[in-house]
Amino acid sequence: MRTLRHSAVQRLLCGVALSVVTSSAMALEASVEGLDGPAATNVVNFLEPLDTRNISEARLDSDIRERTQRALRAFGYYSPQIETSYPDGMFAGDVVIAIDPGPRTHITQLDLGVDGAAGDDPAFRKALASIPLEEGDPLRHDRYDSAKTRLSTLALERGYFDAGFAQQRMEVRPWEASARLFLRMRSGPRYRFGDIRFAGSQIEEARLRRMLPFTKGDPYLAGQLAEYNQRLGQTNWFRGIAVRPRIGDERNVTRGGQWWQEATGRTPPLSSGAGLAAVRRLHGLQSTDVPVDVDLVPADRHKFETGIGYATDVGPRVQFSWEMPWLNDRGHSLSNSLYLSGPEQRFDGEYVMPLANPLRDSYRLSYGLRSLDNEDTQSLESSVELARRWEFDNDWVQELYFRTTYEDFTQADQDEQVLLLYPGISWTRTRTRQPNFPRWGDRQRLALEVSDPAWGSDARFLRARFDSQWIRTLGSDNRFVGRIGGGATATDTFDKIPPSLRFFAGGDQSVRGYSYESLSPENDDGELLGGQHMLTASAEYQRRVTGNWWGATFVDTGNAFNAWWPEELKTGAGVGVRWISPVGPVRFDIAHPFDNEEDAWRLHFAIGPEF
């Protein structure tokens, strides 16, 4: 006979003075014989909270039997035979319950449905079809209760605020092991979105209305209120957002009540629509329109942020950013950042002008200054870029841009000052779950750029760049990271191509085992020239060791080159440790370059997620 046991924490025994013991509290440790599976588990769960203090033996045994019967009835056993025994004594805490469950009650009649406007609603038809109740099935109370909850919640989510159950009863005939279930909802009319009122916004109302996922007269959906709340948050224009439905007169008799909390997404089961119907009758309301209030608090005009970090590629680094999330009632924004490290100092800025759909369409004016002194590269660069940005429903972002760059550089034995004017187009998509340490995600980017002296540029080239990265997990303890990237440049004036547009490989984000941007074609003196093309790839496996600590193994390969296909790919491999900190993963790697005996091992350290 299979036995199911459940352990509880032993409660402290309480004593009083003068050696008189008046009571004790002991949680029961129950063993069930004669029955297994969910029904036996339910018996153990029902007995766990039983309080044995100040209770007689007869009362305790009676309570155990009564709780056991209730637990069994929930699974359709209405005529069980129950025997109890106490191997170590009545109050020792152990009880053995021998159960002959008897015949199981089955559903012989089922009346389940929705009447009224919701009867033709596809969402209700789908919900009814998915409810696990059929004539002939064993009776389970939890499935009946779940059906009630599902229909109630769906009514609130979809705007049937007058809904109630015309029938909700369960008739059980233990003598014939049969049950008749009745659950019929009367939905009443479906409410629709009414007038939409904005308050507190510093942004012109027309822009806010264009972001609405619904319009006046659309059928009510609580999820669309949550979606609009999220859209407003993504603009960064506001520090306080409340989107909520409203019913009643100017006193808002139900605005703060349970009904409308449920209607906006917090949806406990609905037992009846009588409450709302009564309010409507009291105030003479016949309309089924639901006005919506949108209360907003503007975000701070200025936001400042500083960051300090370290990476093997660049050493210590400091970043300071200054953001103005809104400059005017059209929602224009401005951001500037200053980045300082040993090899690179950079100042960047971006002015964003939202269009009709602020989250998806915009013009962007970017500008920057950059100084670089790394290996055989010295460069001073200034740039200005004007871009038109589109974000599509499939998460792809397209940018069409025109960039102007002036760069004064020395690359190995080459010295030039060039002015480049070149248009380009790019497509990017980034998808992640748990952005701090993604368990699933991917990122793709493809960019095409062209330059020609015909419009005043100092160099002629056609340049393409692509990157793709994936993160996948197997179970909860195995994580895989893959990456492939590359680029190609077609040009007959390579000496005019500045370092910012040449290709280099090596480093934390490229080929580990080699120093930052140390892989490229060289001149006769062994100085780096940069390449016209590049190809890199990486495969990494991570395994959780304990808690937030993970181990990693990896192999990277790649190179920068001038021919259309590399003559040699540099390869490095190694092991690493990942610690998931509150600010993102801390990554420490030790890598071996297979073809560099002088630099047999290299340490790589970085903070932050892969993308």
Automatic annotation (TrEMBL):
Keyword Membrane belongs to the record: yes
Sequence ranges assigned to domain POTRA in this UniProt record: 191-253
Compartmental location: Cell outer membrane
GO cellular component: cell outer membrane; TAM protein secretion complex
Domain Bacterial surface antigen (D15): 330-611
UniProt keyword list: Cell outer membrane, Membrane, Signal, Transmembrane, Transmembrane beta strand
Signal peptide range in chain numbering: 1-27
Pfam (any one): POTRA_TamA_1
Domain called TamA POTRA: residue spans: 31-86
Similarity comment: family membership: Belongs to the TamA family.
Subunit structure: Interacts with TamB to form the translocation and assembly module (TAM).
Protein name: Translocation and assembly module subunit TamA
